[in-house]
């Protein structure tokens, strides 16, 4: 199995990056004092009826730790797909609701990218699958995976080497448009070819 | 009948860091038969200033269950703190079935909190106890008293001293911050478990309440972590090619069911957390995801679109053939068992709206628990009395809780940002 076991308590502070996750066990526990019209009754002296174990706070006691993300493998220097006049500029294809089927209108786009990858075998691409917000998050994570996988299979059938392609599903977590309308949803059901 | 909106703690807190924004809870409905109860402000020894208004916390805890209506302090004619000062007839005249009085006294660096619960009509003491508390543990002490009262009066274990894990998000796109938090069941003491610029999903409690599993994209790909809450130590338990999602602890805490697509398609796997052995339970070209264990650990229910639409299926926890168990509707997903194993809660689509449904497994029919349009992520309270879920209110992601018996609705929101994916903890003491 390919699981990697790694403790996060490296203490490496790389807080400059927006992507650096901060793992924290220790809370800055808010102390809230609520003193509503308190009636102070002095001299409560009758013996307690029952003594139980001390109640401790459920607050966490771990020191905050920091982990660093993997280095980005995206090249600083971009390629022809960044040029609006280049056919590789169109890197997003869209899907119908709850399906991973590629619409015929996007076949030419995928062929263009497949041809480029086929002749530039040193170039790698990540196929990012996304969904709209309807339905459950984990089902959508799986649906985004299937969308990316559909594109991957098609490009491999078009001659791209499997080791040039990887897939990444974001499910509904990374909407292109954060709205809750049909228009937003249409833009969010997509696979983006990231070089 | 609808409760007046109950807000507590607003504007009264201080020392609360903005980054640790509390969940604000509104009680949005109660059951018709909510029982009247008076929780008298607790007496305090001379010069003592307790950090928490114990009676206010108890009143709010009881009101949140939907089964009690707590008497406002301003309506009380008398505020006894000792048994000898109590005249139960006064309280029956005010319509109170039950009365709670109590005292807070110093105990070293902490406090000794004692209380008595009365049946006002019969004149009986139903419960009395003294709890020793640290200063920081005073809210938890109040929650434990609430749970003693609740159990005495309803026969069911209370959940005031439990916690909720949830995900919050602020900002959009590259500027987004996603945080996994754990807070008390009343929204207080929010603690950050992990925070990232990348998505965090699917928090799941270990059965002992000490660990939380979750999905994080912090390394630009989905991976499953298991984090110990007390120490903050965590382990990366799944980081395969493709998706790594839907972690679910087995009831004995030794295994983690999950969804992986490393073999080309989303399927259910079970990882033994000790031996690290990974077993594949499903092998189907459709989507199989969202595994959830039966309380006895013998079965796993999951979502599959193998029949053409997402539906709930059940199989043995060692794998084998799966039977479809959702019958109504063309979208049923993310099911999980009630603590007694007799029903499941799930997301179902009704006329294009995504709502929370409850399927009675004995009788087979479904009942709706919510009325939003994008409701999701239902999670049972450990006593089975309520389900917490994510919904949209005023265009913003908030949490809501609904009583299984139809009343006692609540809404939980943050002052800013989205709140989603609630997971109710098991009992913690």
Describe this protein's structure.
The complex is a heterodimer of chains A (195) and B (429). Chain A has 195 residues and is of the alpha+beta class. Chain A folds into 2 domains: 7-24 and 53-72, no CATH class; 80-194, OmpA-like domain (60s Ribosomal Protein L30, Chain: A). Chain A has 3 helices and 6 strands, in the order βββαβαβαβ. Chain A has helices at 107-119, 137-157, 182-188, and strands at 22-23, 65-66, 92-94, 125-130, 165-171, 190-194. Chain A has a 4-stranded mixed β-sheet. A two-stranded antiparallel sheet of chain A has the order 1-2. In chain A, helix 2 links the parallel strand 4 (125-130) and strand 5. In chain A, helix 1 packs across helix 2 (137-157). Chain A is globular. Residues 1-20, 25-61 and 63-70 of chain A have low confidence and may be disordered. Chain B has 429 residues and is mainly β. Chain B folds into 2 domains: 34-154, 3-Layer(aba) Sandwich (Rossmann fold); 163-193 and 248-424, 6 Propeller (Neuraminidase), CATH 2.120.10. Chain B is 8% helix and 45% strand. In chain B, strands 2, 3, 4, 5, 6 and 7 form a 6-stranded mixed β-sheet that branches. In chain B, strands 1-30-29-28-27 form a 5-stranded antiparallel β-sheet, with no helix packed on it. In chain B, strands 10-9-8-31 form a 4-stranded antiparallel β-sheet, with no helix packed on it. In chain B, helix 1 (54-64) packs across helix 3. The longest helix of chain B has 17 residues, at 138-154. The radius of gyration of chain B is 23 Å and the shape is globular.
